[in-house]
Each structure stands twice: as structure tokens, then as C-alpha cells.
Write a structure and sequence with these properties.
The chain is α/β, with parallel strands linked by helices. Helix content is 43%, strand content 14%. It has helices at residues 4-7, 11-18, 40-81, 94-104, 122-135, 150-163, 185-194, 214-217, 274-290, 292-311, 343-353, 379-393, and strands spanning 28-29, 88-91, 113-117, 138-142, 167-173, 198-202, 221-225, 237-241, 317-319, 331-336, 355-356, 358-360, 368-372.
């Protein structure tokens, strides 16, 4: 395989990668942030595992998966993140993991404050507000200034910690689903520690497309998805808890399924998608063989820059993520400044240009159009987007 830094522009190479995915005829998908496609090989392996579990049923699950295979898979995830094996527990998705962390964090007293921002995922925001109501806490919400800069993002949290000294716990989204902004996690976590604030990190959109060192970031609590940028079947996620901080998270709903010091008691319990979990080793091997997050991220950012560089030159279009490489990834949003509601543009992109995108709102910059490239996205797809944006910018 060519060197990663040369590989991003190697269209023959990436065409061969795209050929590994089965893509239905129809609109060009520029909404790859919802969940990622499985490669053909992964989908075939998944189907074999469905058939196998359907045949073997609980005999295999109780004798093999519950006792050994699930732990082997857990260990592979820990190695992917370079963390201790006993710091990982399997969940159905990042939301399950994050909500468990939030509702079971036991370091709060009535009158304490929780911190969120306008960029959190809905399930995280709801969970923080629910915990506040249950325990007599106050929710502080900060709204990030737009356009964002690295320095202003960090300063907004430092200011919040100074203004609200009773903040004990905060949510932090690594990559916001609304605009694609990548938060300066390490600097924010360091500021939080200086003020005695614990951080629960939403890593749903980060894993698989961004290189990061979880320990270097200073994170003790996090939730992740595997069906976005890693390429696994749907319904796979996991919870991370630093083993030294396990006692700060109570067993979920008083779980006694495992001994209390076992992190698996902190994850919601239920019958998972076992065929999907049995497919994960193949997914992780493909991810590694491709070059991991480094190779994926370089290619995805290259495709992102192709359309963003053009869009920035068009009148009446505002790109909502800065070109600071520390703050950008495959997901980037834009808006047509003449419109409050961006849904009509989303509709026209689909009807007139065969481009599938999605509208998002909730952040300070208002309604926007989220564009997310994927590994099956071609330069021709990007050129079709550029053509559409040029024509739509003319009114």
C-alpha cells in the first residue's frame, strides 16, 4: 500500500476500496455520519454469523460467547484504544454507554451543577437534564460563539468553570453531530481538572476517523460507537471507564450480574446482537489493514476539503467549521445565509441534483446542512456537489 500521505489522492486505490462496498442505485449518499456501510466481506461474515447463531442458539452463546468470546472481543477493543482490558464493557451504542455513565455517576450532591453546551447529542442532553431533576442539581448550558476557534472554545469552558464554581460534571462531545466541529478535548479536559470537574466524553463520531490517545486526552469516562467509522454492523458500542475511577460509577440499576468490581456491571444489561459482535474481529482487521484512523482520516479530510474550498468562495454560503485541522473531520456543515430554514435546500439537492444530505439544528449557528463524505464517496460525487452549490448560490 502507498504511504498514507500520498494515498489520499490515489483515486485508483480508493476506487478499489469503494468497490468493496455494495451501494444501491439511487441518490449519492453524502450523509455517511448516521452510520457507516459494512464492506461486502463484513456483510457476508455477518450473515454467516446470523445463520450460525440461529442454528446453535443458546448452546453456543451460553457456553462460548458469554464466557470467552465476548471477553476476547472486549480485549481487542481495549487494544484498539491502547487501554486496559478491564476498562471496556460492551453496549448497544454510544448513547447506551453515555446514559449509563451519566445516571450512575455518584459524585453529585443537591445544589451541584452540571455543564452542557449547545453541541451535545440529544440523548446526552436529555440524560443530563433528567439527572438534574432527579437529584436537585442545576444545569448550566453554554452556547459556543460562531465562528468557532480553538482558543475561543477552550476559553468558553474556562470562563464557565470560573463563573459557576459548583460545576462537578460536564458532557463533552468530541465531534459534534450538528456541524462536524471537532472539540479541543485535551485542553478542555485539562481546564476541567484544574477546577475539579469530571468529564464524560461522547466519542460516537470520533472513533475510526480521528487519531487520538485516550489516556493522553485525560479522559476517565467515555462512550463510543462501532457502526459509524469503524465499519461494524449496527447496534455495537462500548463504554470506557478508567479502572482507577470505576468506583465513581455505580453498577447500572444495581446490577449484580457480575462482581461489583467488574466494569460489565456498569453497562446496561440485555441480549445483544451476538452475530454482530462475532463479526467485529473481521471489522477490526479490515480497519487495521487499511491503515486505521490515520488512513481513513486523511482520505476523508481530502474529500471534505475539495468541496469546502469551493464552497467558501461562493456568495451566500457559509461553511460552519473552520479550516483549522485540529477542528475538522469528514463531517462539515454549511448554510445558505439568505435562508433561516435549510430544509428547502436539502430538498433541492435531492430532487434536482440526486444528492442526499441532512438538515441539522440546535447549535448557535442555527439550521444547517450536514455533509458527510465516506470511503465510498468519489471525486465525481464531490464534483456533483460543487456544481449544485454553485448553481444554488446563484438563487
Amino acid at each position: 500500500m502507498p504511504r498514507i500521505d500520498e494515498n489520499a489522492r490515489d483515486e485508483d486505490f480508493w476506487h478499489a476500496i469503494a468497490e468493496r462496498y455494495d451501494v444501491a442505485p439511487g441518490p449519492i449518499n453524502l450523509e455517511n455520519g448516521y452510520f457507516g456501510r459494512m464492506t461486502r466481506g463484513v456483510a457476508q461474515d455477518y450473515q454467516r454469523n446470523i445463520d450460525f447463531i440461529n442454528r446453535s442458539n443458546s448452546v453456543h452463546v451460553r457456553q462460548q460467547f458469554d464466557n470467552t468470546q465476548s471477553l476476547d472481543i472486549r480485549n481487542q477493543l481495549a487494544e484498539l484504544l491502547a487501554v486496559e482490558h478491564d476498562s471496556i464493557a460492551l453496549t448497544n451504542c454510544a448513547s447506551d454507554a453515555l446514559q449509563s455513565l451519566i445516571r450512575n455517576y455518584n459524585g453529585l450532591q443537591p445544589g451541584d451543577q452540571l455543564l452542557i453546551s449547545d453541541l451535545e447529542y440529544h440523548s446526552v442532553e436529555y440524560a443530563m437534564r433528567w439527572v438534574a431533576r432527579q437529584r436537585g442539581l442545576e444545569v448550566i448550558e453554554i452556547v459556543h460563539a460562531h465562528p468557532a476557534t480553538y482558543e475561543h472554545l477552550v476559553a468558553s469552558y474556562r470562563d464557565a468553570f470560573e463563573r459557576y464554581p459548583r460545576i462537578k460534571l460536564m458532557a463533552l462531545t468530541h465531534v459534534t453531530h450538528r456541524t462536524g466541529l471537532v472539540m479541543p478535548v485535551e485542553a478542555i479536559v485539562q481546564a476541567a481538572k484544574e477546577h475539579g470537574v469530571d468529564v464524560i466524553l461522547d466519542g460516537a463520531h470520533a472513533l475510526g476517523q480521528i487519531d487520538f490517545d485516550l489516556k493522553a486526552l485525560g479522559i476517565a469516562f467515555a462512550g463510543y460507537n462501532l457502526h459509524k467509522w469503524i465499519g461494524a454492523p449496527l447496534t455495537l458500542g462500548f463504554i470506557y471507564i478508567d479502572p482507577h475511577r470505576l468506583a465513581d460509577i455505580d453498577p447500572d440499576m444495581g446490577s449484580e450480574r457480575y462482581p461489583e468490581p467488574d466494569i460489565r456491571t456498569r453497562a446496561p444489561y440485555g441480549t445483544g446482537n451476538i452475530p454482530a459482535w462475532l463479526t467485529l474481529p473481521k471489522v477490526l482487521q479490515e480497519h487495521k489493514d487499511l491503515g486505521g484512523s490515520t488512513a481513513k482520516g486523511v482520505r476523508l479530510n481530502y474529500l471534505r476539503d475539495l468541496w469546502v474550498n469551493e464552497a467558501r468562495q461562493l456568495p451566500g454560503i457559509e461553511v460552519l467549521v473552520p479550516d483549522d485541522p485540529r477542528l475538522q473531520c469528514a463531517i462539515t456543515s454549511l448554510r445558505f445565509t439568505r435562508l433561516q430554514d435549510q430544509q428547502p435546500i436539502v430538498d433541492r439537492l435531492l430532487k434536482d441534483y440526486n444528492l442526499f444530505t441532512v438538515a441539522r439544528d440546535g447549535s448557535a449557528c442555527g439550521s444547517c446542512i450536514r455533509i458527510t463524505v465516506g470511503l465510498a464517496t468519489s471525486v465525481d460525487d464531490i464534483n456533483q456537489l460543487i456544481k449544485a452549490l454553485r448553481e444554488l448560490a446563484q438563487g
